[in-house]
Amino acid sequence: MKTRAVYNIAMLNGLEIFKLSDPNGNLAVSYLELRLEGSIKSPPLPNNNKKKRISWHIIVAIIAGVTSGIVVFSILGFLIPRRRQNGGKDSGTNVPKSSSLPSDLCRHFLIAEIKNATDNFDEKFVIGYGGFGNVYKGYLDNGRITVVVKRSNPSSNQGIHEFQTEIEMLSSKLRHRHLVSLIGYYDDKNEMILVYDYMANGTLRDHLYDTDNALLTWKKLIDICIGAAKGLYYLHSGTKHTIIHRDVKSTNILLDDKWIAKVFDFGLSKVGSVGGTNTTHVTTAVKGSFGYVDPEYYKRQRLTVKSNVYSFGVVLFEVLCGRPAINPNLPSGQVNLAKWVCRSCEKRNVEQIIDPNLKGQITPECLRKFAELAYHCLREQGVERPSIGDIVRSSEFALQLQDGADNEVDGYVYPSFPLIINGDANVRTNEDEMSEGERKLTSNGISMSVSRSAKLNNVAIFSEIVNPLG
To answer: Protein kinase domain: which residues (predicted)?
Structure first.
């Protein structure tokens, strides 16, 4: 039997890992002999209850570990952005979280690209200054693309919120012929930078007063006003949510190389309700630029689309008068453009406030229509102001009046029309009050009457509007 046992073990020689010794330390004894001699006791059968207890402890430990990990990562996820923002505050600038900014329709630049585009923000590339910071002209992709770079100033009043608002607005929501397009942005630590399409002809303000630039013709100025109004109309009616710009002014209307007007700077914009009406408001702190802020918004802190209309009315009078919204160097009664022109219009002194460079270019009927429109934009109560759609149509009508007059034969004498505001040529809201010899021009439900004599003198002009080919 012993011989057979040895023989059987010999068959496993190739797989032998270690040998067992007997109680005397003898390694020559076969495996079967050790088993038979009982010198090594068989291991006890496992205790199933103990295994269950061990398994349960392991499961509890795993669950506790996973839960702790989730809690730790949640805390870190909360503290890290807070630390970035606090770090920004310590240095004077809030820092946005780049992960929260969209990148589907705009480019996230490297700082090296922007420094290369502006020659490390060289002063010779500065083309403007604003509340956000310096504005530079730059060149991307080896000079093939000209851009505008707006770099934040650590001491700027506009910070992270305005920066993110502008990116979110322009990168995904707003795309229109009369809005400036955002190309991309850069944000890291104390740097917040926005990159836009370059507007070769600068701002509307650059061509109105105190400038070395060539002055624009009256027809070109009206056309620019129409383009800007169309941009605002898109903000009010062309998107799912009404967008209120909140900082409409002549420096935020830019002109491209073809003199197409584009609304700029959406950092202060507010999003209204879906399909918001002219009376829908957003309760918010007052922000904007001196001389352009809607007085109703200022008093009640209720922002509506009519707040944009008021600001645009100031721009229209800037264009007509060739002066800034606020000029502290003028006599006290003329410092504020809006107040000054309203008093002048009510006294029928519109001709006296026209920019001297435009005198002789504007026909009386075009002047009347344009001044009426601008005046009604500045009404104290928003409900009395025209909608931005009415502004587009009325501006186009004023341009048609100018075009019609320009196409008349030389020697035609244009009559002078009273400005329709109050008094004899009153604004009427009831069609039944119109006499048979009167014709009405309608703007936002307000009927503005014109006498029969005015109608007769305008036959040639209106025939041009109806049939441009004559």
So the answer is: 121-398
Strand ranges, E, within 72-157: 107-108, 126-129, 134-140, 145-151
Cα dist from 358 to 218, 378, 408, 419, 467, whole Å? 7, 22, 19, 18, 28
Per the annotation, does 50 bind a ligand?
Answer: no
How far apart are alpha carbons 435 and 450 in whole angstroms? 10
Catalytic residue among 187, 223, 247, 265: 247
Enclosing H/E stretch for 441: strand 439-443
For 360-416, how does the pLDDT look when each residue is reduced to its tens digit (9 = 90+)? Answer: 999 999 999 999 999 999 999 999 999 999 999 999 999 999 988 766 534 444 444
C-alpha radius of gyration, the chain, whole number: 39
Q: How far separated are the first and last CA of the chain, in Å rounded? A: 131
pLDDT bracket for residue 356 (50, 70, 90): very high
**Span 260-279, pLDDT tens digits:** 999 988 777 777 654 555 55
CATH dotted code for 205-466: 1.10.510.10
Alpha-carbon dihedral angle through residues 317, 319, 325, 329, given to the nearest 10 degrees: -110
Residue 453 burial (C-beta neighbours within 10 Å; 0-12, 13-18, 19+): exposed
User: Beta partners for 136?
Assistant: 126, 149
98-197 maps to CATH 3.30.200.20: yes
Task: Judge whether 247 counts as a catalytic residue.
Answer: yes
